[in-house]
Amino acid sequence: MTRIAEPRELDRLMSGVSRQLVPLFRPEIPAVAEEIFTAVRRAIPDYDTPLDRPRTQALRFSVEHAVLQFVTRMADPSPADDFHEDTYRRLGRYMADEGRGLDDLHTAYRIGTDVAWRRAVSVAARNGVPPDVVATFGDALFAFRDRLTALSREGHLNVRPGEARSGLERDAHRRLLLRALLRRPAAPPDEIARLEGPAQWKVPAEVTPVSLPPGRIITLPPGMAAARGTIASAAWSLDEDVLADVAGEDPCLIVPGPVGEGRSRALGEALPGIPLALGTTMPVANAADSMRWARRTRDLVAAGVIEAGPDGVTRAGDHLFTLWLQADGALMRQLEERRLGRLNRVEGGLRRRLTETLSCWLRTRGTAERVGRDLDVHPQTVRYRLRLLRTAVGMELDDPEVRFSVEVALRAAELRGAELRSTEPEPEPAAAEQRDRAS
């Protein structure tokens, strides 16, 4: 008979797992969850239902939740709280509510553990993890499986008819609804209407999508949107009218209506330490576009192109011009080549001085005297550089369309880090002209 891990024993084993394994295993979370999900559906006919069915979505959520919870305990071996443990009790109650035994669920736990163990051994071998460290991890993993088994059995024996089914199916429908709202091409209105009731979420006229960073451990138990509405692992709380899909590869939220100061503060408090990128508030039919902008904003913040907003909440609406410039990198590089190609092939020092002068002149549309004051150079030097730009570099600076496209290309180059401002002291005008001609 399988020995069931008691909570204290599991806590002790989790405490013994090396924290150094966390950065090795965290990137594996999405792939492991998907592999377990596929293996379970292949092995157990009752779980091999269409992907858009609530039972299949509940299975996917449960798998992702278990994988995330285990890695969360690796990073912080504090004892699991009641909400996390109730996830697995509810699975047992759900099986009883359907008049089914626990054999399939226990088989699913065994399959999941086997898949996770094989992946862990492979990752450990690639990274030279000592065998004794791997063995300690294995003890904790199998004890974790035994604990899930015990919790599900407890829930199965204490079934409250209808409660487990309604909670799991509501959560599954909420994820289906969120994904339908973000689909491209847009989901048909009748599909959205069919999901509203089971999801217990009335679709508003406008929504604000929120993008969260991928690869972070963010866990929500089933029933997150119920009255207590908590993310259990850190006693976080989200407003219950927020749709959430945080276990996938690209976690996100949908907030009804605009996100004002109060809601923004609530999101930051609900997800402390998690950078958030907010899309613009849009009609629900355009939610997918807004989410795309939110995710691009998130990526540009991570790349250092956009500065993060207050308290880690960055609004795409504050950076629309940058998002536009970054929307099609290949096209923008083509524009840069067409407008700046000859300038970029000029010798480095002269190129920097010409670029600096051109940027200032386009920005201010000022006289040589005004540009000279801004750059702290002689007006004659400015005039000479502008002549070079018009002749040697071939810029038609009298054409408004050319000026605009050049300004856009310069801004795009700056965002990509292609422009380097000169730090050299500026020579006297005559010396500068002689040096530039020699170049």
From TrEMBL:
Domain PucR-like N-terminal span(s) in chain numbering: 18-181
Q: Which InterPro entries match?
A: CdaR-like_regulators (IPR051448), PucR-like_N (IPR058663), PucR_C-HTH_dom (IPR025736), PucR_C-HTH_sf (IPR042070)
Spans annotated as Disordered: 417-439
What this protein is called in its record is Helix-turn-helix domain-containing protein
PucR C-terminal helix-turn-helix domain: which residues?
354-412
Q: What is the lineage of its organism?
A: Bacteria, Bacillati, Actinomycetota, Actinomycetes, Streptosporangiales
